[in-house]
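Input record (one chain):
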Amino acid sequence: MSPLVIVARKELVDGCRDRRAVLSLLVFPLVGPVLVSTLLSTLVERATVERTVTLPVLGMAHAPALVAHLEAEGIVVVEGPSSPVDVVRSGASEAVLVVGADYPAALREGRRARLQLVVDESREGARPAQLKIRRALANYGRTVGALRLLSRGVSPELAEGIVTEEVDLATPEARGAVLLNFVPMFALMAAVFGGMHLASDLTAGERERGSLEPLLFTPVSRRALVLGKWLAALAFAASNVVLTLGCTAFAMSRVPLERFGMAARLSVGDVLLMLGVLLPLAMFTSALQLLVASFARTVKEAQVSLSLLTFAPMLPALFLSFEPLRPTPLVAMIPVLGQQSLLGGLLRGEVAEPSVYFACAASCIAFGALALLVTARLFASERVVYGR
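The corresponding structure, as predicted from the sequence alone:
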């Protein structure tokens, strides 16, 4: 058995014995997608379940036709309270409609009749009911306007100079991708977090325990030693990515987004393409973490240094939210940013050219190889070995 395999197996066994490393491997992939899918399922259920909207109307005797229209729209109309502001502010009602005493006279004289809708915009749960009430009132206003024009011998179409018909080119996958913006973030964080704990323990941890120096006395080259440690960290990072994508695909299959005309299903082919995008990134991040942790004297110091890498998946996501980029070979060569753009395209049902995927993988492999080469040279330095 080659020294490289022996070192990798030894580090993997030690990593599996570390409870914190195993928990970091399992908790994030299992908890994150389940929580997000549960939240999305709850939001979809709330939005699609038909709720009975009750609207208190103060002065409903002044507007019998309006009351009949609201009831025809599926709104239950009841007598309004004497103090609409207090009722809405206390949360007893989503909205209260106030009809003034001059409302019938304004309608008879052909003037603009005014209504007062008392609402509280800060109440998130009341917005669906408020939206339904506003639509019903707007429909009634258009009906009254059309009847006034007809009574004067004028076609209501003259009031609408332009009619715009929208052609929506968004596919169900593209609509679903709007809600699935968290998937690239979760996948990238899995590639970054997966081997972070093990990478800090394989370098700074062994130096703190005093086991790094005896390990260097073994007849194993520095390059094989670093590669073995890197393979162990890579195994944890790759497992984290696989578990995250698998749990996300299963969790999203339970969300009924088709009720909104969306499709958010991750097929086996999508998952395999995502793995092809993320595994080279996991190779690079594992090598970079070994390099950064090699300069730390203790595990705590290494964790502080490596925690700065957690911002790596967040910054591209923030940038792409303001300035979307199409996946090109040049963009794909930038680690994390290239993966973010490719994963976003896959969720929208857009598959990039093979050259883009090749550039993305080649860039991460090249940067990872460079980090491993620098780490192997550092292991030959007395300052790094003894933490001086």
